[in-house]
């Protein structure tokens, strides 16, 4: 069974060109199912029927897993069975008729432009760590890239003269422009700091931690939370909030949706349209306030 999952994950990554996040999520979902089956009888994934898959999905709901998690789990199971059919190891996909749970679309949480500016001002520009941290924060907000993409960037992905970065994910890549503030922060980091921090001078990774090794997601998250606290941002902040804020602020300032979609790397523009709705709601709220408040 493990051999089938391993070959499926290889197929996803190297043949289908799925993102690292998708591959890791599907691997986790299938292994959780495998553990569940071992703990609750002698069935394997190969033996499952439609009713048994539905029972497992109900089990996830009883464990208070979100509709998005249940939906992704079903997608992983469907894709796995489809792969086994393609490899002539299975004749039918027992998950194909199971309905996906309805996922309530949440309005993304964003920071105000003032909060972002305050956050970016927190790192100490005269300190080695502060110079690095400011470069990371400026670049994240300037481009809207995911934190996984940020920590995967190589020096060769940055073109400061032309003012853009190349962001690569599996077999896809996209060019994202960067502004003066991010360029200035990166020039300072690359010119004065990175060679001090990096352990191996041959390592091409852009951002490294204080031990000289590549920055991790967890490491960046801790850095972000520290500066959010210093900026007196009381709400729980995540790296993805900067991505949402980047997109929302672009739309609020007149960027067209197609350009925002390309910069974010969304395959479907409907995913990007949430920022247009968010902008519309904000504008309506502001209009109502200025129309009705006695001291507006």
Describe the structure.
The protein is built from 13 helices and three strands, in the order αααααααβββαααααα. With 296 residues, the chain is mostly helical. The protein has a three-stranded antiparallel sheet, with no helix packed on it. Strand 2 and strand 3 form a beta hairpin. It is elongated, with a radius of gyration of 23 Å. The termini are far apart.
In short:
The protein is mostly helical. The chain has helices at 2-15, 20-39, 50-62, 67-86, 113-120, 128-143, 147-150, 180-192, 194-197, 217-230, 239-252, 257-264, 269-292; strands spanning 158-159, 164-169, 172-177. Helix 2 crosses helix 4.
Main sheet strand line-up: 1-2-3
Order of helices and strands: HHHHHHHEEEHHHHHH
Q: How much helical structure, as a percent, in the residues?
A: 55-70%
Q: Count the strands? A: 3
Seen as an oligomer or otherwise, the chain set is single chain
End-to-end gap: 65 Å
Q: Over the alpha carbons, how many angstroms does the gyration radius reach? A: 23 Å
Unreliable parts = none
Reported for the largest beta sheet, the result is:
3 strands, antiparallel
Q: Per DSSP, what share of the residues sits in E-state strands of 2 or more residues?
A: under 5%
Averaging pLDDT over every residue, what do you get? 85
User: What would you call the structural class?
Assistant: mainly alpha
> How many distinct helices?
13
The best one-word shape is elongated
């Amino acid at each position: 069974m493990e051999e089938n999952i391993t070959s499926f994950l290889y197929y996803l990554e190297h043949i289908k060109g799925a993102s690292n996040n998708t591959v890791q999520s599907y691997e986790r979902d299938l292994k959780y199912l495998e553990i569940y089956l071992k703990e609750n009888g002698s069935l394997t994934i190969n033996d499952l029927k439609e009713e048994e898959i539905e029972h497992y999905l109900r089990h996830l709901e009883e464990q208070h897993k979100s509709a998005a998690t249940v939906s992704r789990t079903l997608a992983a199971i469907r894709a796995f069975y489809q792969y086994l059919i393609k490899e002539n190891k299975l004749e039918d996909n027992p998950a194909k008729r199971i309905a996906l749970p309805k996922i309530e679309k949440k309005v993304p949480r964003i920071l105000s432009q003032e909060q972002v500016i305050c956050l970016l001002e927190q790192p100490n520009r005269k300190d080695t760590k502060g110079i690095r941290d400011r470069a990371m924060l400026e670049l994240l907000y300037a481009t809207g890239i995911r934190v996984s993409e940020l920590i995967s960037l190589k020096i060769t992905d940055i073109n400061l003269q032309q003012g853009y970065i190349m962001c690569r994910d599996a077999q896809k890549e996209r060019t994202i422009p960067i502004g003066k503030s991010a360029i200035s922060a990166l020039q300072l980091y690359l010119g004065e700091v990175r060679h001090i921090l990096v352990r191996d001078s041959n390592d091409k990774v852009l951002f490294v931690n204080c031990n000289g090794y590549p920055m991790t997601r967890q490491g960046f998250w801790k850095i972000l939370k520290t500066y959010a606290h210093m900026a007196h941002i009381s709400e729980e902040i995540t790296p993805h909030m900067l991505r949402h804020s980047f997109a929302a602020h672009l739309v609020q300032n007149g960027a067209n949706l197609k350009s925002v979609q390309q910069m974010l790397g969304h395959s479907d523009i409907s995913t990007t349209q949430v920022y247009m709705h968010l902008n519309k709601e904000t504008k309506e709220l502001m209009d109502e306030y200025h129309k009705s408040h006695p001291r507006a």
